[in-house]
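Box S2. Input/output pair 1.
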Amino acid sequence: MHQLLTIAMKAARRAGSIINRASLELEKVQVSRKGPYDFVTDIDRAAEQAIIESIQEAYPDHAILCEESGLIKGKKAEPEYQWIIDPLDGTKNFIHGLPNYAVSIAVAQKGKIMHGLIYDPNRNEIFTASRGVGAFLNDRRIRVSNRSRLEESLITGRAPAGSSSDATRFYQLVDQSSGYRRLGSTVLELAYVASGRLDGFYGANLQAWDVAAGSLLVLEAGGLIGDFDGEQGWMRSGNVLAASPKLFPLLVQAAQF
């Protein structure tokens, strides 16, 4: 395992320990709103700080992009490496005691994602990927599913709000699939596509920390990822499709008008 991924695993486990302890006393968790449907807790912030400290102890020169703290610049003016972290993806699930949430950590080198890790502290599952090395669940190699028909596939992702064109595309895709499963954690949904538990993913208006680690997992598990047109503008737009090579073109086709 690459040294950067080893540090990511150490950081994720530190964050996971904080989350697991807090899950036993949810009545003590402090919750505040970031937006109309967006929440943050003191546990998000504590887990994020634990990850930041783990990274800075090992790599003080590296930059870190965090969901809660924003961009933390390293000691170098133009750092080669940037860590992208979501300390607790699925905060609403966590608040309700629903055990679908995870820690996500990715490492980019000169703008390209090179390592990714998603840690589910409830199931003690660690999904990891390094570019050119493959994707793994704990120590077992994982692959995307081999389903090639939408009507046989389980689709996951975030349903867009309102009656926008994104929502129309999404429900058109769901109607053609075998079923829709929403986990409430984008990073887990991408990890499940990478491991073949789910077949396809659709997400609109996502942030870098939502997709950085999961995108590499999907690619290294033999899948494809792109925007709604099947192109590579998904990191800029936040509009993401992910699936196996057989299913991906069908997702793109279904997402069109």
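Box S3. Input/output pair 2.
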Amino acid sequence: MLDFNLFPSLDIVEGKALTSRSAIDFTMNKNSIKDIIGDPLDVVDYYFESGAKWVHIVDLDAASGIGNNINLIIKTIKHIDSKMNTQICGGIRSKYNLEKYIDAGCSRVNISSMIFEQPLLCDELFKKHRDKIAVALDVSHKNSKYKLATRGWNKLQGDLWNVIEWLDKSGCPRYVVTDIERGGMMNHPNFTLLEQVIAKTQTPIVSGGGVTSEQDITRLKHLGTEGSVLGQVIHTQRHQLERFIQYAQKLNKNEPVQSRFI
């Protein structure tokens, strides 16, 4: 079984790192309060010092179409240099911006809206960049159907299973699967959804978040996911990041572990 990686999230709004819940609410016009956790460069330094091998960077301004943090994110990529891998998402709707990130040294770029708006371009990008591309499957369960949320989770479109079937045929290298109803809620991953997606495809999967405990990490690894994004739980309980990383490392080495609920 492959190593299970954790992806601490750096959610950026107007140049500042926010808690995941605050960033989501702000960009979906649910709340005007910005719960700032710090300067993005300082936050990513903390992630590295805690032992993280990846950072998941989200441009919430670009996702919602009200601006972007491209220059800051590229500065962050260069600041990290080769110390950590970077996974970037949020509002990447053009080949120009996607390749701008890759050229800057980004390890992986997640796309979402583009699969509906420029499907032929996605085919081209999968072939050209391979593992440097992933598709963010941000899922909403409405009227007994799984729909995909795009445009900063403000627009629902497509059928999840039809989209996965098409993306598999197109050679999509990886999916990042998120239940948007659980975004920033610290309410555990949607294991039922993940199990269904895993049963549908052989494509590698990263869980989009929801982790609140070591038991969640164990279950995600045993399901066969490659890892999970960590957001609200480490933004509000910073001490959890290092503990979760150490726990995942022990799982990867098949060392005895003692898990605890938060």
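Caption for Box S3: The radius of gyration is 17 Å. The chain has one domain: 5-253.
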